[in-house]
């Protein structure tokens, strides 16, 4: 990564180093996934359903941020009243 930062002014070398870094990241992710699969298989062989489901959930979990924000008026105050919310949505 340091080498990439040093070659920021040279686009061809920067791109070459960037490709190498991406390849290494892909390999590392693949190894990590294989290791987790081995752990799942180990727990399956031991008939440990609790840990199998826990590991599967860990592998397949996707984090989503809650993007709900409160409705505010022009003054920046949070609107609580239902009628005021309707008015805010109309404008």
TrEMBL record:
Name of the featured protein: Uncharacterized protein
Q: Which organism is it from?
A: Ceutorhynchus assimilis
Its domain of life reads: Eukaryota
């Amino acid at each position: 990564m340091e080498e990439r930062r040093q070659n920021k002014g040279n686009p061809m070398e920067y791109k070459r180093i960037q490709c190498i870094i991406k390849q290494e990241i892909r390999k590392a992710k693949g190894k990590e996934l294989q290791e987790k699969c081995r752990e799942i298989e180990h727990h399956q062989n031991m008939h440990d359903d609790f840990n199998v489901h826990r590991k599967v959930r860990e592998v397949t979990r996707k984090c989503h941020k809650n993007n709900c924000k409160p409705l505010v008026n022009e003054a920046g105050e949070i609107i609580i009243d239902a009628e005021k919310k309707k008015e805010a949505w109309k404008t």
